[in-house]
Structure prediction request, 279 residues.
Amino acid sequence: MSISALLAVIEDDLSYNIRRCLITQSLPQKRNDPENKLKLVQISDLHLSASGGLFNDNWETVLEWLCAAKPDLVVVSGDVALGGRNVDVDLAFAHRQLERIPCRWRVVPGNHDIGDNLHTGSKKNPVSAARLHRWRDLFGADCWVERLGDWAFVGVNAQILNAPELADDNLQRAFLESALAELADDTPVAIFSHKPLFLDRPSEDISCPDCIDPAGRKHLREIFSGRKVRAFASGHKHQYRAFALNGVRHFWAPAVSFVAQAPDAKSWGLRQVGFIEYT
Prediction:
């Protein structure tokens, strides 16, 4: 399976509309079988709102592309709603929009959907059991394993990693360990998370809202130990980035909605709106 990233350029300082495609990359294949070629699309950080706005217009453009492209699976890597952690109608509106996707889709929640990590996220809007239950009532499971072709695509709820105060942290771990135990040892695995695994290097000891914290990374290493992890795909940073490290390809999906932060802010990748197509 290879990857081509469909990224948008910004037309001017006030526009966020998607209009052009850029960049191609590659992802390891288990076998070369043209008749079973897969097409998977990752979209992230839609920030949809029932009150409307430019971000909703971008979503309509992406939805039109999806209807024409007909992928096998769409993975949404979080922040589907603008104010979903506090605004019920935004979260419900976002769910109705995902229901318009013309193929099978899976989604993991982001900090704007269920709140941020208890120890390293925003203290104003922490994840809570009530917010998790509201998400599950609408979207279903917040962690999952999806088999497609040779691959196992695994959705992880990054917002509850390293949260012993919530029973859901241990429940997610138990579910993933059980589901992974059913896979053959040589099954290639791609992990989808809202937050990136790290910013600069896996050994960094910083704890911040921008990525999974060291304790959360340790938990994931334990869960996926012995598994053939080939990709880790995330969103959250509103930047496109792709690199390989120790046999794992890391992808940061750009936001569908907008480019974040000031032009002179530190950037790890390409700051453009868009999405990623894996083929």
The first strand starts at residue 2 and ends at 7. Residues 8-26 have pLDDT under 50 and may be disordered.
